[in-house]
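Q: Can someone sanity-check these two? First one:
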Amino acid sequence: MVDTNLTKQPKDHKEPAPKPAETTTPEKSASESELALMDLEDQTRNALREVYDPELGLNVVELGLVRKLDWSPGKVEITMILTTPFCPYGPALIDQVREKVQEVTSRTAQVSMGLEMWDPSMMEDQAAANWGLYY
């Protein structure tokens, strides 16, 4: 009989045990992705502080115009409102918000208008205090 085994191993040779596959528990990966998403949301909101309402001289975050950010893979949906329903700068603000979010997140951004009416109580506390409003 012919031995077809081309590599002879000594009889006492043992193959190394295979390394266990690296596994990540769903809890760990979920919490890591949640932290990354929270960090991205903070970066996004900070970047939106560069988008100003030209009539009021305050940014859209201080004014409370950005109501919600919804995240999905490759996309961000922003819900925002305007200070008045027929704000003459509305289209420009919406466009600036969309562009800024795309720039920061490298994701497609879509802005939709919320249905709630803006009122000064939606402003950040310090911005409202600077206007002389106290709630």
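And here is the second, same format, sequence then tokens:
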Amino acid sequence: MKKVFVKTYNVKRFITMMNNLQNRAEGVPGMGLVYGEPGLGKTQAIKWWAFKNDAILIRCNQMMSARWLLKEILDYMSEIKPYSISDSFDEVIRNLILTPRVLIVDEVDYLGRYDKCKFTTQKVQPPLRQIIRNC
């Protein structure tokens, strides 16, 4: 049996959103949001589209820090692996300017939440949402 990705109504809406983002006017911010109840196919649609369009897809988890997020992004982009968060951020921006690509962050709602680790109640590093917004 041949595996086929079915373009449901929600997938078609996602494709439309991505096309609108990619074809936006100069100077218009390029950030989209996909949300909804579990089981509607959001992650599957994102994975399918990212593969077809050579996008960078990062999947967040509950323990992700700013450094970890930037490392994941840079693993797709660059041989250079700066140590500091600010240098890593600068490297991400430099790479996106030199080679523009779509950056998709799945499960972004985990960013900025309180750490789930039972050993600490420290809040996850604050620049996470700003990093996503600025990329």
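A (reply): Looked at the second one. The chain has two domains: 1-53, 56-135. Strands lie at 56-59, 103-106.
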